[in-house]
Amino acid sequence: MVIFTAKLNKKRLLAVAAVIAIAAAAFLLSRPHDQPYEADDVLGSSSAETGGIKTNDDRLRYIDSLGYSVLSEPLSEKEVVIPEVFDETYAQYNALQQQCGFDLSRHAGETVTQYVYSVTGYDDAEDVRLELLVRGGTVIGGSVYTVAVDGFMRGLGS
C-alpha cells in the first residue's frame, strides 16, 4: 500500500482558486449577453464540425460527414430571413433544429443562405432533399425531407 501526504499551503490554495475564478469570469464575460449558453460551448460539439463552410466543396464534405450522399451541385441557393417572431410552424421547425444541436432563435431577424441538395440513395424514398442554412461560413441549421405530400422531415442529425 502506498500513501501520499501533502502539506496544504493556504496561500497556494487561495492563489489557485483566484486563477480559476479569473479564468471562469473571463470566459463568462467574453460571451455576448443576448446568447444563451449551450453544452457544446463548454464541452465541444459532438456532431459534425459546422464552421468553415465557405464553398460548395466544404458543404459537400459536411454533408458527407453526416452520412448523406447528394448530387454535387445544389438545386437552389437563396437568401432567407429567419423570422424575428416564430409562428407555431416555425417554432416546431426550430424544435427539430434544437434536437440536432442548432437553435435558430439565436439568429432571429438575420439573413442566411439556404442551400438545397438532392439526396441520392435514401432508403426507398424518392425526391429527398437536404437543406443547409449557412451564415458567415457556419451551418446554423438544416433538414432532410421529401417533397411528397405524405413525406417526412428530419433534422440533419436524425
The description of the largest β-sheet is: 5 strands, antiparallel
The whole-number mean of residue pLDDT values reads 79
| Uncertain spans | 13-19, 23-47
Beta-sheet strand percentage? 15-25%
Strand segment count: 5
Quick one: overall form?
globular
Helical/strand content category: alpha+beta
CA radius of gyration is 22 Å
Order of helices and strands: HHHEHEEEE
How far apart lie the N and C ends?
A: 50 Å
Task: Give the count of helical stretches.
Answer: 4
**Numbering strands along the chain, what is their spatial order in the largest sheet?**
1-2-3-4-5
What attributes characterize this protein structure?
five-stranded antiparallel β-sheet, alpha+beta, 22% strand, 5 strands, 158 residues, 4 helices
Molecular structure report:
- With 158 residues, this protein is α+β, with helices and mostly antiparallel strands.
- It has a domain at 48-155.
- It is built from 4 helices and 5 strands.
- It has helices spanning 10-30, 39-43, 56-65, 88-99, and strands spanning 76-81, 111-118, 128-135, 138-146, 153-155.
- Strands 1-2-3-4-5 form a 5-stranded antiparallel sheet, covered by helices on one side.
- It is globular.
- The model is unreliable at 13-19 and 23-47 (pLDDT under 50).
Summarize the structure.
This protein has 158 residues and is α+β, with helices and mostly antiparallel strands. The chain has helices spanning 10-30, 39-43, 56-65, 88-99, and strands at 76-81, 111-118, 128-135, 138-146, 153-155. Helices cover 30% and strands 22% of the residues.
